[in-house]
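tool=predict chain=A
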Amino acid sequence: MSGLHHVTAIAGNAQRNFDFYTRTLGLRFVKRTVNFDDPGTYHFYYGDEAGNPGTILTFFPWEHAAAGRGGVGQTHQTSFRVPLSAIGYWTQRFTEHGVAYEPLEKRFGETVLAFSDPDGMSLALIGIPGAENEPAWTAGGIPAEYAIRGFHGVTLLLDSAERTGAILTDVFGFKETGRDGSVIRYTAQGQNNGKEPGSIVDIYEAKGFLAGRQGRGSVHHIAFRAADDAEQAEMARKLVTTHRLRPTEQKDRNYFRSIYFREPGGVLFEIATDIPGFAVDEPVESLGHALKLPSFLESHRAQIEKVLPALGELVS
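tool=predict ok
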């Protein structure tokens, strides 16, 4: 199974981030944990009911992080799937909630509503005919017929698409499926012809553009799916032998196991296993209700809870 596993970004204020993604966008708060490498920082996960791969947007909320700057070598935009008939609802909702959005446009024949989150992260809703028949998280205050159905995909802003495209096709099982001006579309194969969450990676070739600077509102990394450790190891082998890249050793992230590498255009890529999933330490019905820590940090819970920012009610 190919496609996106999750996207991880940098936020500012944690409460503001939570309120926007659960109350304005209606995503489920799937997991409240910490950055395993910086346990004084939250790691928030938002997605569908069970936190399925292809629906998960995660954040490191660093209160005093400087604003990022978009540019070459970064994820330019992260997009979600919604029913085509829901675009009018979302335009009205954004107006009522003071969300900054752009005029509707067409890309690859699809209706696109681009907008920004409170930290300036570039997002979009893509109207997909028939998506109303797909499962949706309906407890987030958004009527089921309008709710987000997971990721559509991501757009990378790169100086050149060639080497990155080769990795997408050879390692991750995508296929080039179209071109729209300077944008090349890659679609995950085996994902119902790109009609499942997280099936799309667009590369916007922008030779000579200013390099981006990561910060608040920037995507930190993009994670691609591997069914299990064996599939992940095979992907790593291809990266080394065919593409001369050096992924990291495997890291246990409790809900998936990961390796990382920087693709030729400068974006940090992760390969994350589908297993064991987000219900490994709490039942699906109560996902996100409690602060969950990995076993190696559990003995430090009191100290960690003391330094984490105070939050209001975090139940979505």
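The chain has a mean pLDDT of 94. The chain has one domain: 4-307.
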